[in-house]
Amino acid sequence: MAQLKSDLLRGTLDMLVLQVLSTGPCHGYAIGQQLQELTHGELSIEQGSLYPALYRLEKASLLDSHWSRNPESNRRTRIYSLTAAGRRRLSRDVNGWLAFVHTISRVVPSK
């Protein structure tokens, strides 16, 4: 199956990032890796899209972050976690997405 086009992601990246972080804190690279794994390689988020989304979500108080030292590489990494406002936003976005998919499925038949 062809990789999903980036234009299909427009408007959903924030929700996807929040969803990954709902399972626990992690660093940016791991968020991208988890999205790729969960979608069996169909979804690959470029760093040029992921990191601006993380900064935007943090600025909107939907994420917190702190620096941590990776014990394996001894490098500093920024760890992101969901705030209470982020959890509320995720719930709202997921409900909206499910309603959207349900509505569109009335027009576009599934295979």
Brief overview, please?
By secondary structure, the protein is of the alpha+beta class. 53% of the residues lie in helices and 14% in strands.
What does this protein structure show overall?
There is one protein chain. With 111 residues, this protein is α+β, with helices and mostly antiparallel strands. It has one domain: Orthogonal Bundle (Arc Repressor Mutant, subunit A), CATH 1.10.10.10. A 3-stranded antiparallel beta sheet has the order 1-3-2. It contains 5 helices and 3 strands, in the order ααβααββα.
Assembly state (oligomeric): single chain
For the report, how would you describe the main beta sheet? 3 strands, antiparallel
Query: What is the alpha-carbon Rg in Å?
Result: 15 Å
Uncertain regions: pLDDT < 50 for 5+ in a row?
A: none
Q: What is the averaged pLDDT score? A: 89
Strand content: 5-15%
Domains, number: 1
| H and E order | HHEHHEEH
Q: How far is it from the N-terminal to the C-terminal residue, by CA?
A: 14 Å
Helical percentage:
40-55%
The total beta strand count reads 3
Principal-axes shape call: globular
What is the CATH class name? Mainly Alpha
What's the helix count? 5
